[in-house]
Design brief:
Order of helices and strands: HEHEEEHEEEHEEHE
Shape: globular
Structural class: alpha+beta
Strand content: 25-35%
């Protein structure tokens, strides 16, 4: 059986996982708009978690966040996917006022295939992913077996304080704008 060469690998999409969140305005609508904008010929949204209400992390004197995770298949590089995510944030009027501060939308690349990337403005896997229950809870819903530094997402989440994290009713179709 012939092996696949690197040229044929480049023809296959890469599975990436995105973390989405926000806590001002209508973050659910902003996340839905971002996912709809990303879902295109070059980025196919494969699965989206339920919405989760989570306490703020880092800077705690602000409203609770809504968070979700999405898996996407893409032919883009990680850098190009990041640019698409940043474009979606700009369209939705994301303002970067203070680190960990309130925001209408935030989109992070949590994982990008089997790649480890450390570049200016882009680190994959996300450097603090294993510390953040607000990111792991929705990710565990859509990719419980994904391995992060030798342990599954579910195992990582089980080792963190999940107090205050609530999975909201409504399931995984909230982002499509369809009632159900």
């Amino acid at each position: 059986m012939p092996g696949r060469n690197s040229a044929s690998r480049m023809e296959l999409p890469t599975r990436a996982y995105l973390g989405l969140g926000g806590n001002i305005g209508d973050p659910a609508a902003a996340m839905a708009a971002a996912l709809q904008a990303l879902d295109s010929e070059s980025v196919a949204v494969v699965a989206v978690s339920s919405l989760y209400r989570t306490p703020p992390w880092g800077m705690t004197d602000q409203p609770d966040f809504l968070n979700a995770a999405a898996s996407v298949d893409t032919m883009l590089t990680a850098r190009a996917l990041l640019e698409r995510c940043l474009d979606a944030e700009r369209i939705l009027k994301r303002v970067r006022a203070e680190r960990w501060g309130p925001r209408i939308i935030d989109i992070d690349i949590l994982w990008f295939g089997d790649e480890t990337i450390e570049e200016e403005g882009l680190q994959v896997p996300h450097p603090r992913l294993t510390e953040r229950a607000f990111a792991l809870a929705p990710l565990a819903e859509i990719a419980p077996g994904l391995i992060l530094s030798g342990r599954s997402v579910g195992e990582r989440l089980a080792g963190l304080d999940t107090g205050g994290i609530t999975r909201l009713p409504g399931g995984c179709e909230w982002w499509r704008g369809e009632s159900g």
